[in-house]
Amino acid sequence: KSKKKKMSKIVRSVFSCDSRFLICQDQKAVRVYTVSHRTMFRLFEVVEERSSDSIVSIIPHTINYQQVFVFTKRGDIQLWDFDECKILKKTQITHKIYDAVPCSSSPNLHFYMTMSIRKLVDDEKLAHHEHSKGANVARLNFDTGSLEVEKTKFGRYCQIASHLTLPLVAIADKYCISVFDERREVSKFMTIVNHREYITTLAFHPVLEKITFGNSSGFLVTLLSLKPITTENIHPNVSTFSHWHSHAPHALAWTPDGLLLLSGGEETVMVIWNESQNTKSFIPRLGSTISHISISPNSRTYAICTSDNKLRVADSITNACRVVYYGLHVSRTS
Question: Nearest-CA neighbor of 322 among 290, 300, 291?
Fold first, then answer.
């Protein structure tokens, strides 16, 4: 038997709600770094190396800052305490999970997920689900493991986002965006925009009831209201357009106070937009396509994931990268 090293792929990162820890996921494991000391605090394996399962999303606990929810492709949802490196609670659903976001009204209990339409019964059917052409959106109760399907038959590669403070969830599916509002008496998704370009990423404003998305032409479009499309009015929402990217942006993030918008894509430059002053600044030469951006709750630190398997941590005051983390080498027996 021979052993070869394989670099694990960094997928995304999030900050703990007290801004002390940076939690980073790859396909099989979760790493926790301390922001102040810039060192690895914990590493715990969620999925066995030989398993066909993988991590699809991580969501920090909003009350206990040393806990994180981990979602896997095969339908496992686990609550980890990364200080003690152990699972506190877990539940499982019978569908394949594509992505998950917290519900703002009860972020440690309810989650919205995009998942496979058909149930995942056994390993032999996994290959079939890999090529499934649709996705459902469901609300999960973590305590009971119960699911409420809110919308059926979105596209397989639809994107999901939730508002930080308002009970809103948005789905971007190719050329349209639909929003689900828990405050409405009739629980259903409303289509708020049919766009002429392919939608590549989206993010809610953290304070106001508006949403920003990027398209395949490199534009950032901000919808200043979230009114549904009707037969009388096919363009109900006022939009603002911003353009710097020459290619489609892949990552968007608002600072918690809603003053700055961060965007990135194939240009290897992160753009920092100040809408109130109509100015922008840059963090250039990041080496590869930006795939994910996260911002600490105290707005002091940016975490930038790039496609060359690196995680860069930047200071929000100086716009300078302080440290670069690389993907872990893991042993695999062939």
Answer: 300
